[in-house]
Each structure stands twice: as C-alpha cells, then as structure tokens.
Amino acid sequence: MSADAGEASADAEDLYVRLKVYEGRAAATSGVGKDLVNEPMIRHWCEAMGDTNAAYAGPDAIAPPTMLQAWTMGGLSGHSDRSGAHDELFALLDGAGYTSVVATDCEQEYLRPLRPGNRITFDAVIESVSPRKTTRLGTGHFVTTRMDVRADGELAGTHRFRILKYTPAATYARTVAHPPADTHPRADTHPPAVAAKQKPRRPRPVINRDNAGFWDGVARHQLLIQRCGACGTLRFPWLPGCGGCGSAEWDTVEAGGEGTVHSYVVMHHPPFPAFDPPYAVGLIELAEGVRMVSNVVGVPYDKVRIGMPVRLEFQRVDEDLELPVFRSLEESTG
Based on the domain organization, do 293 and 232 belong to the same domain? Predict the structure, then answer.
C-alpha cells in the first residue's frame, strides 16, 4: 500500500469514527404535531391516493396508516423543537465531500389506529450510520433515522427513514481525471478507477414479490394492471391486496396503451449522470382508469400539457433495461 493510500484509508476510518458518535443522538425531542388528526387532511390524502376504503370516512373514521409521518411534518416553518444533531451530522458529511442526498427507503410499523382528535407527539433518533458504501449513484454513507409516533401519549407507530449522503459517480470521474494540482486523491471522495470508465446507467427498479409480475410483463412489452379477484377493481401501482374490499386475490389485464397526461413536472435538478435534464415526468391516466408515473417523450419538455393524448411504448435505456414511457400523439412544434 502506498503512503497516499494509507493516509486516505486512515482519513476514511477517522471520519467513520466521528460519524458513529451520532448514533443514538436525538434528532427531535418531544415534538408536537401542528394539527390534531382531522377529517379534512384524511380526505385530501385519500383523494390524492385514490383510496376509497370506507374505513377512512364517516363518524368512526380512522386515518390511513400510511399517513403516520404526515402528522409529524413541520411544513415550511418547520419545528422549533428539532435537535441540532441531525444538522451537525449532515454538515460533517458535506465537509467530507458527500454533498448529494437521496432517499433510499422507509419502514413503518403500525401499532394502533389514529382517529380524528388525536394529538400527535413524537421523538426521533439517529439510529445508525453505515460504513462507507459504493453504489451506482456514487459513494457515501447511509443514515437511518427512527421516529416513534404517539397518539394522546400512546405509542401508535414507528417510522424509519433511510437516506444516502454521497458524492455522485460523475463527480468522482471528473476528480480522478483532473485532480487538484496540490492535493492527493482521497479514498473517501474517490471510487475505484474503473468507475471513471463506465457509462452511467439508470438506477435499477426495485423488484420484489409484490411487483415481479409487472416487470415480467414489461419484459414481454405488456403493461399489466392488477384486477381484484373479488370485486374486479383495477389498481396501479401493484399492491398485495385490494384497497376497495381487502381481498388478496387478483389477476391482471393488459392495458391498451392509450392515455392522457393528468399532471406533470419538469425535472431540472438534481442532475444525475444517467439522466439529461430538463425532462418531463407525467402522471398518466390510462384509458382503463388507473394512473401511473412515467416519462413523456416525443415532444419538447416545455410543450407537455395537461390533457395531452399519449400512447405507450417501451424504451430501451441500456443493454438490459427497458421501461414503459408515453409518447405524445400531438405533432411536435419544437
């Protein structure tokens, strides 16, 4: 091992020791939800999600369990009782070159239903900081925060949220090719040299037992929609059970491919190596009545509009990944 490599390894180990100090420290203490659990917020959530479950309406309504975190959010003004530990940890990572962030996953455990009128309180802790990891996006550290949510003082659920603080792979490639004149390469900001030679690829979809059939269909150039085996309700994205009647039985129908742009956003930031912003991401309402998120292609991003007719096609983005996208049926004027 060269002296430079040994120094870089020691720096990386020293950083991880400093990061580990934050495990177990409070990220929020005795937080209080800004609103009681209430029917209007439940209704807005259900309308946005297309969830018509009868349990979420009427005099005995409960809140959808997946709203657990929503009652703890501070909005634009934030929470005054937030601890500084989280900000300190992020500042330490930023200073080490891990300035990008991406949410990777969350886990929720539900212990009791939330009902209108419940007062929500919560505590959050930095549960873990991972060793340095190299991913397709880049190299950095995973940070997991656990929040315990209480309703009128009784534990109602736990929310774990995991992010990756990282330096993008493209930044690595530029740094390796053009290192600063008077500095040495550092192991905690550079990936293996091979990364500089690889063409960036799209992140792979997460495939599990609940959605594997959908991706099998994509491989056959079929867009498959789930259909409840009990009540016949169509649903998308794929779920293990019916939101209407609760049945776990289902089969599939193939979408015809016609749709319209129900809503859309134009992505400008953050830039990722595998993407070329700006580009349009649409919420597509299929002719079958369900909606899905995908790219709108075949028209300049600034020409996409709500109500635009589109048609399904399958776009190969690299040697082993095809994705369903929607091409505008209107003639491009760009």
Answer: yes
Query: How far, in Å, CA of 153 to CA of 146, rounded?
Result: 18
205 located within any domain: no
Residues 174 and 276 in one domain: no
Q: Any idea what the CATH number is for the domain that residue 43 is in?
A: 3.10.129.10
Give the number of domains in the chain.
Answer: 2
Q: What is each CA distance from 49 to 53, 140, 227, 240, in whole angstroms?
A: 11, 33, 17, 16
- Strand-pairing partners, residue 114, are none
Q: Which two tokens stand for residue 207?
A: 């495939």
pLDDT for the residue 188: 42
| pLDDT tens digits along 57-71 | 998 999 999 999 999
| Whether 126 contacts 25, CB under 8 Å | yes
Is 178 found in the same domain as 315?
Answer: no
> Does 222 share its domain with 104?
no
Within this chain, do residues 153 and 242 fall inside the same structural domain, yes or no?
Answer: no
How large is the greatest C-alpha to C-alpha distance in the chain, in angstroms?
71
| Whether residue 104 is found in the same domain as residue 59 | yes
Task: Using a cut of 0.90, tell me whether the model's pTM lies above it.
Answer: no
* Backbone region of residue 200 per phi and psi (left: phi > 0; alpha: psi in -120 to 50; beta: other values): beta
**Radius of gyration for the alpha carbons in the chain, expressed in angstroms and rounded:** 23
Give the model's pLDDT for residue 178: 41
In 3D space, the residue among 287, 328, 326 whose CA is nearest the CA of residue 305 turns out to be: 328
**Domain membership of residue 189 as a residue range:** 3-197
**40 preceded by cis ω (within 30°)?**
no
Residue 78 has pLDDT above 80, yes or no: no
Q: Among residues 313, 259, 302, 311, which one has the least CA distance to residue 277?
A: 302
What local confidence, expressed as pLDDT, does residue 184 receive?
A: 39
